[in-house]
Every structure is written in C-alpha cells, then in structure tokens.
Amino acid sequence: MPHSPPVIEVRNLCRRFGDVAAVDNVSFSVSAGSVTGLLGANGAGKTTTIAMLLGLLLPTSGAISVLGEDMLRHRYRVLGRMNFSSPYFDLPQRLTVRQNLTVYARLYGVRRVADRLATLAGELELEDMMDRSFRGLSAGQKTRVLMAKAMINEPELLLLDEPTASLDPESADRIRGYLESYRDRTGAAILLASHNMPEVERLCDQVLIMQRGRIVDRGLPADLVAKYGRQTLEEVFLDIARNQGDRRKSGAAA
Amino acid sequence: MSADSAQRRGAIASFSLRRVSALVLRYGYLLMGSWPRLLELAYWPSVQIILWGFISKYFVSQTSWAGSAAGALLAAVLLWDILFRGQLGYTISFMEELWSRNLGQLFISPLRPYEMVLSLTVISLIRTLIGVIPAAALAIPLYGFSLFDLGLPLVAFFGNLMITGWALGLFVTALLLRVGLGAESVAWMALFLIAPVSAIYYPVDVLPAWLQAVAWSLPPAYVFEGMRAILFNGVFRGDLLVGAMLLNLVYLVLGGLTFTLSFRLARRQGLLHQLGE
C-alpha cells in the first residue's frame, strides 16, 4: 500500500512572545484517517500551536505543512479544506443557526447549501434550533452548532479545541461517535486539544503531551499508560505534571 | 519570490465574488432581522433634515441672503450625512465581528482580507442609501428642496464622499485590529475630527490660513465647495471634482496599506484570535 504523506507536518516550530517561549521547538506529524490528541495544562502551548496551524498566528521559526502546502506561503490554498471548532470562537449572536451556517457554507464554497444544512442538522440534531438565534441557545447547543460550522465543508483536516465542553454526557458521547464515524467515512485527520482524558483515550490514535511549550512525551494512549505504569491517561497526565512541578521546585532549591 | 509576494499573487488570482456576497448576506441578515435597526438607519438623517429644514425656514423669513443659503444648508446636511453614514456603516459592520467574537472564524475561512474590505464597502453603501434617501425625499415636500436637482454632480459628490468614508473606515478598522474594542470610540469620533476643516456649512476661506491648507488636503472640502458653487453660482467646478478624486485615491491607497499592514502585524502578534469583547 503506498504511504500517504502526512496531513500535518510540523518541524521545529517555535513561537516566542518576548522572553517567553510559548511553543518551543515542536515537531510532529498527523496522518490521514487518524485522530491526534494534544494534551497539556493551561498555558502549555496547545492553543498557540493550533493558532499557527490555522494561520492566525505566525511562528517565530519553524515550518508547517498542511495537506501538502506550506502554510506560511500558501495558506489560502488549504483553508477551504480544513476547519476548526472551539468554544472560544463564537458565531454572530443575532443571526439564526440557519443563517450562520448558510453564510459559512457560502464562504467555504459549499454546493447545494440547503442539502448540506439539512444533513448537518440531522447528524448533529439541530433540527429544532435551525431558526432560533444563536444568542438564545444554551452553551451545549452552541457547541453543537459550532461543530456543524466546523463540518460545513466536510474538511480533510479538522482542528478541535475542547469539542465536547459544555455538553451533557449523552450529547458528548454522540459527538464522539459522530467524529469517529466521520473519520472512518472520509479518512479525514483530526487534531484534538482536550482536557477530557477519557475522550482522548477513546478517540485518539496518537497523543502529544505538551508542557511549557515543548512536547514532553508522545505515543499511543495505551502505550503511554503502560510506559508510566498507570491505569488511565489521566494518571499519566498528572504524573507528568507533578514530575515537572517537582523538577521546577528542586531546580529552584538548587 | 518571497513568501509574502507568492501569497499575494495567489490571493489575487483567486478572488471570489461568492465569498464577498456571503459576507454581505451576513450583514444583510443582521439588518433585515431587526426592524428597530433598520428604522434607526433612516431615523437620525430624517430628524436632522427636519430640524435643519425648520431652522433654514426661519432664516429665510429673517434675511434675503439666507433665502439663497437655505438650500445650501440642507444640501450640506444631507451630504455630510452621506460621509458620516459611509464611514460609520463600514466600521460598525466590522465591529459587529468583534462584538460577536466572529473575526477569528472569518479569518480561518478562505475569506481574504480584501474580500472582507469589499463586503464592508458594499454594506456601507446599502446602509447609507437606506439612511439618506428617506431624509432627502422628506425635504422635497417639507421644504421644497430636492437634493436630486443637483443632477449628475450629485453622483460625483456622493461617490467622493462615500470613498472618503471608506478610506477613513479602513484607517479605523486598522486601528481596531491593533487595539481591539478599546478603540471603539474612535469609530464614532473619527469623522468629527475632520468636520471643522471639511467646509461643510461654511467656505474654506472662513478658516485661518494654516487651517485652509489642512482643509484643502481633505477631499470633503472640495465636495462641499463644489456643492456651493452649483447652488450659489450655478457653476459646476470640474477642478474641485478632480481634486477630490485625486485626494480620495491617495487616502484610499493609504487606508488599504494601513489595513494590510495592521492585518499582518495582528497575525505576527497573535491578535486575530484574541480580538473581541
């Protein structure tokens, strides 16, 4: 079987804000049909990494290739083939869900907009809220609409920041199932930043653990759990965080 | 070939009217979804024209000179409103994206910054027409004054004032990209900074000499002088029109460059995904 090139290839990526290295010499790749989890405490560099992958932020140094294109030179060639969802990005509050999705469908060049909206409304259970204003939705409903916006162009690369935040356990489970089936059906690559460890264990083929701007460990969730001699990925995460804290303390004492 | 120039070439080659219309549709939904918003657009220009119309009527009854000036005053009110609405319609639409934390979503879509600029100019034109046409129509039965009697020069005045509004809008949105909604008040005040030297209600030569130089560096002064030349002397001053057009071209290019630079700096400094309320 021919080896397909990675959907994301990041090499020696650095981003400094003054003296602070928000992302420090990070390299990784994400292949088609895989889900990669980006883990780390707040301020570890996950959002900054995603912002650079989206072209919203320029790196200080390093290279980013997305879908075979150099993101620093040709990001407009690939922006239409990728998408992003985050609870920290909203949609126009006064527009209805249908209006918001129609605008984004047109921005992404979707053909047969009405059909696409109907499909997404069915898949993400938005039928009852399509003609309600975005402002009037609950946090969980907004998360589902933001997911619909991220899926509007059937992206080959999907970047997700806390995709199930604010969702009740049942809705969150459905979204995870939806993402799995989307990945299986389309072969899309997914990069997922999450603090929900069971979610990461369920969805991800590869996990990158970031700390203070660096990737400090990586691997299959099960391999990481075995490597650290723990039962869950959450325990691994806490181990790494505490070890780092201890190292910092002993460094300060020395 | 540098990364920037390669990206610029690619971007220009792939301009999409569909994306521009998508964003115009977004602002259209907002406008049509709220009748108070729609009413507000026409409300202030109409109130202004009613107020100034009665003031003019009063002046006419007091002096014969004011009789000839009354039309100029009403025309000035309406033309000033074109400039004001043009700039405000542009910047308010941009601020809608900041208020709704939608700017990041737009800039991760295939929408190019210049397509956004074009969408803002289109919606600013629509908002201005909605605001000014009812006020201009109101002046006809109430005061027997029709701005439309200016004929073709009105098109030139309108076009020039709109372009000045867009150029100013580009400078203000560039500032908003840099500092976010902290600069919101600038969007409302910017035009009033140039109002005293725009010769709206009085000729440029009323100003002190050093301020006259400032006035002649701004396109509105040429438009308002041109308007008075028609209303007082029945003369269309082509030289004033050319002056306004050339200056508008300069300001539009400067505004475009400032916006582009501001957008690049925002990307470099990571401001695009942080802007919002």
Would you write up a description of this structure?
The complex is a heterodimer of chains A (254) and B (277). With 254 residues, chain A is α/β, with parallel strands linked by helices. Chain A has a single domain, classed as Rossmann fold. Chain A has helices at 46-54, 71-78, 97-107, 113-123, 139-151, 169-186, 197-203, 221-227, 233-253, and strands at residues 8-17, 20-30, 35-40, 61-66, 69-70, 82-85, 157-161, 189-193, 206-211, 214-219. The model of chain A has no long low-confidence stretch (mean pLDDT 91). Chain B is mostly helical and 277 residues long. In chain B, helix 2 (17-32) packs across helix 6 (113-143), helix 3 packs across helix 6 and helix 4 (64-99) runs parallel beside helix 7. Chain B is globular.
Essential attributes:
heterodimer; A: 254 residues; alpha/beta; Rossmann fold; 9 helices; B: 277 residues; mainly alpha; 79% helix; globular
Quick one: CATH class of chain A?
Answer: Alpha Beta
Give a short account of the largest sheet of chain A.
Answer: 6 strands, mixed
Gross morphology of chain A? globular
Q: How does CATH name the architecture of chain A? A: 3-Layer(aba) Sandwich
Beta-strand portion of chain B reads: under 5%
Series of H and E elements of chain B: HHHHHHHHHHH
Number of separate domains of chain B: 1
| The CATH superfamily title of chain A | P-loop containing nucleotide triphosphate hydrolases
Count of DSSP-assigned helices of chain B: 11
Largest interface: A-B, 38 and 39 residues
What is the average per-residue confidence, as pLDDT of chain B, rounded to a whole number?
Answer: 88
CATH topological fold name of chain A:
Rossmann fold
Give the oligomeric state of the chains in this entry, treating copies of one chain as homo and distinct chains as hetero: heterodimer
- Low-pLDDT runs of chain B: none
Q: Biggest sheet of chain B, in brief? A: none
